[in-house]
């Protein structure tokens, strides 16, 4: 990337999304925000801007981090640029007239400080009409239990991005069982290293590949639950 000024409005949509991804990669918060605003001003849907601009950019960061091309400081800068772009999209993604369709407590599990994906899920769920209690990162079973007692949610959402922290989800579920609340709750799990088999093995209700799937799954399981309760 050079210091030269881009005329974003002269770029094709494809080039604009590529530019947003490049700026995210370089950790340029202001430029990412400008790119996102330009895409929105062209009437592009917020979810498309999110996935084709921000998430696509972060995918490249992830691959280069894995391959030793980028290191933690650069990834942190990229993460902050992603968050700046997400802040522009947040009100648009959560804009909804829908009544509350359920309540969810969501948090990243103990030992894990990745929060971008979890916050995206929280945002999209809010947009779909769910009430969200976002516990942040590094939550142990006590933190989840305290939130369950305080907020009486329908759904518990757990996020883990590390293979070393994903097993802690099972610890939380075991605790829910010990406390006798497991069957009162829908437990959804997500994060890049997880899959359906893992969710099944730890006795979660479902694995959610991304935020859109989380919304779909939550709605479906809430409907089943309400149907059964009747
Ligand atoms: Co980290 N990191 N990181 N990191 N980091 C990964 C996860 C890694 C895969 C990178 C790599 O090697 N390619 C790797 C894990 C390897 C492994 O475990 N096998 C890794 C590592 C190793 C580490 C450190 C150990 C590095 C170090 O210190 N040496 C360290 C660990 C710190 C800790 O947690 N204790 C670390 C640190 C960091 C930063 C702080 C620099 C930063 C986090 C900043 C932040 O979150 N505030 C960071 C980042 C940014 C990443 C990558 C590059 C991007 C993650 C991200 O935000 N993706 C990541 C590589 C990758 O995943 N490709 C990587 C974008 C986000 C939108 O996607 O989070 O997958 P994602 O969320 C999706 C879905 O997974 C799903 O929906 C989301 C939206 O669609 N989902 C849910 C997620 N949670 C859900 C919960 C649900 C439902 C769906 O509940 C219902």
SSE inventory with pairings:
Elements: H1 13-25, H2 29-41, H3 46-66, H4 72-94, E1 102-108, H5 116-127, E2 130-134, H6 141-151, E3 155-159, H7 168-178, E4 186-190, H8 196-201, E5 206-208, H9 211-229
Parallel strand pairs: 1-2, 1-3, 3-4, 4-5
The structure holds CO-5-methoxybenzimidazolylcobamide (B1M).
Description of the structure:
The structure is a single chain. By secondary structure, this protein is α/β, with parallel strands linked by helices. Helix content is about 55%, strand content about 10%. The chain has 9 helices and 5 strands. The protein has helices spanning about 15-25, 30-40, 45-65, 70-95, 115-125, 140-150, 170-180, 195-200, 210-230; strands spanning about 100-110, 130-135, 155-160, 185-190, 205-210. The longest helix has 23 residues, at about 70-95. It is globular.
């Amino acid at each position: 990337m050079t210091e030269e000024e881009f005329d974003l409005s002269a770029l094709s949509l494809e080039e604009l999304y590529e530019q947003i991804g490049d700026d995210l990669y370089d950790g340029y918060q202001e430029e990412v925000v400008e790119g996102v605003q330009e895409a929105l001003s062209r009437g592009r849907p917020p979810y498309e801007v999110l996935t084709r601009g921000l998430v696509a950019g972060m995918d490249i960061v992830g691959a280069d981090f894995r391959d030793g091309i980028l290191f933690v400081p650069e990834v942190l800068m990229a993460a902050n640029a992603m968050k700046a772009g997400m802040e522009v999209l947040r009100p648009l993604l959560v804009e909804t007239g829908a009544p509350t369709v359920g309540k969810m407590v969501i948090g990243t599990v103990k030992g894990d400080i990745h929060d971008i994906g979890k916050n995206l899920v929280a945002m999209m769920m809010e947009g779909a009409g769910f009430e969200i209690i976002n516990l942040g990162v590094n939550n142990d079973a006590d933190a989840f239990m305290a939130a369950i007692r305080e907020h009486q949610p329908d759904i518990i959402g757990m996020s883990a991005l590390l293979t070393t922290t994903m097993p802690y989800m099972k610890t939380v579920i075991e605790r829910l069982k010990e406390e006798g609340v497991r069957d009162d709750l829908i437990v959804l799990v997500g994060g890049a290293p997880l899959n359906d088999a893992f969710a099944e093995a730890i006795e979660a209700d479902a694995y959610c590949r991304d935020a859109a799937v989380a919304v779909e799954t939550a709605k479906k399981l809430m409907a089943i639950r309400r149907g059964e309760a009747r």
